[in-house]
Amino acid sequence: MNHNLKEIYTYAMEWTKEAGENIRASFPKTLNVTSKSNPNDLVTDIDKGTEQYFIEKIKGKYPDHRIMGEEGYGDEVTGLSGVVWIIDPIDGTMNFVHQQRNFAISVGIYVDGEGMIGLIYDVVHDELYHCIKGNGVLLNDKPIPELKESRVSEAVIALNALWVAPNKRIDHQMFIPLVQDVRGTRSYGSAAMEMVYVATGRIDAYLSPRLAPWDIAAGIILIKELGGEATDLRGNELDLLKENSLFVSKPGLHSEILKHYLKDGKW
Ligand code: IPD
Ligand code: CA
Ligand code: CA
């Protein structure tokens, strides 16, 4: 299959900006909020409408492309051959509902399993972070510099406080030495935004024990394009057909944290 990646990139940017415009227009309206797997797993009619909007646009122009979307309106994707769009229509829905900020649209486009186009749109600030593989990452029209090496003692990392308290998923002890040794910790409540903050160097790393493919598909393309590292918490390659733990970071810092802080982790 011969794909016109430049054209796909142009449409992806146009549709993402348009989807963001629709979300901004929804702000004055009352949200219809329901929960999914648990009372804190929120979804709104805007999450659903945004995903449906993408599907209509993509299928209208590219009927042979497949779509993996969080809200389930896309295809049942069991392999990554051909062109696959991996979409989170709103990443950070809890922030969207409570704050109407700190959320993003995340779109990763994979061709035969390779991440080729990544877009994360900070809708409230009208900031589109985007790249096509091999051409660097832009914030709107402005190139983002390559990531520089960093060290634990000077690092600000993103980590949800939940993982440093007793919880059902991981041994919470495992992150304590890292949290004690870094310069500071942050938690923004949107994996896509946290990955953008790593890509732009605003934070040095982001760690999470479990994320879905649509949370990370775009962010890992942007971070790798800038020379950063993206693996699971054991340093293994990520698999976009299942849930993964995630560890993204600036170069240098990644191997330091893996070697000294994560090697004995139980999760
Ligand atoms: C969530 C956010 C959050 C992360 C959760 C995700 P959603 O995505 O990225 O930061 O901790 O694991 O599910 O539900 O808002 O799209
Ligand atoms: Ca998400
Ligand atoms: Ca979502």
Automatic annotation (TrEMBL):
Which one of the record's GO molecular function terms can you name?
Answer: metal ion binding
Q: What class of enzyme is it?
A: hydrolase
Catalytic function, reaction form = a myo-inositol phosphate + H2O = myo-inositol + phosphate
- Report the transmembrane regions from the record: none
Q: Which cofactor does it need?
A: Mg(2+)
Q: Which CDD domains match?
A: IMPase_like
Which InterPro entries has this protein been placed in?
A: Inositol_monoP_metal-BS, Inositol_monophosphatase-like, Inositol_monophosphatase_CS
List residues binding Mg(2+) 1: E70, D88, D91, D215
Keywords, comma-separated and alphabetical: Hydrolase, Magnesium, Metal-binding
Q: Which Pfam families does the record cross-reference, listed alphabetically?
A: Inositol_P
User: Gene3D superfamilies from the xrefs?
Assistant: 3.40.190.80, Fructose-1,6-Bisphosphatase, subunit A, domain 1
Leader sequence range is none
Q: What is this protein called?
A: inositol-phosphate phosphatase
Question: Where does this protein come from, organism-wise?
Answer: Mesobacillus subterraneus
